[in-house]
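Researcher: I'm preparing a figure for a lab meeting and need a structural model of a single chain. I don't have an experimental structure, so a prediction will have to do for now. The sequence is pasted below. Please return the structure as tokens so I can convert it later.
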Amino acid sequence: MPLLPRKGVLAITAVIDIALNARGRPVAAKALATRHRLPPRHLEPVLQALVRHGILRGIRGPRGGYELAREQHRITADEIDGAALAESLLLNKVVMPALGAAESAFSAALARINVEDLTHSARGLARVPGEA
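Model: Understood. Here is the structure written out token by token.
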């Protein structure tokens, strides 16, 4: 299970793409969506959330698009993720805590498995030709 929701990963990817491709001019949402094989309608709400949180600046017009709102070293992945996810109260208050509890339970289950137990189980398997 990924540690970041897809929306957070998408937001971080978008900011990095804009940082790499702006070169003194805004990056069009359509170009960004094309590069990442996404429908623009899927990407636009994420970009707007990043603008509302002061991470990106939106520029209107035929040569408009998005650019970083401040220096790269002043924008963190955590801030980007938070901006992307801040839009959903349901996600933040219900889904993410439930998934966090599931991740904790999974981690605890993994902690109960040791190499000795796995080796013991493996010895019980019939040898398959070609396998060690």
